Amino acid sequence: MIPATLFCAAAISALLAIAADWEERRHPAFYLLKPLTTALILGAALSLVPATGSDYRLLVAAALLLSLLGDVCLMFEGDGWFAAGLGSFLLAHVGFILAFLKGVPLAWPPLWTLLPLVYGLGLCAWLLPRAGSLRIPVALYCLVLLGMTLTAALRLQTLGGRPALLAVAGALLFVVSDSSLALRRFAGSYRGAQALILSTYWASIGLIAASV
Question: How many distinct structural domains can be found in the chain?
Answer without folding.
Answer: 1
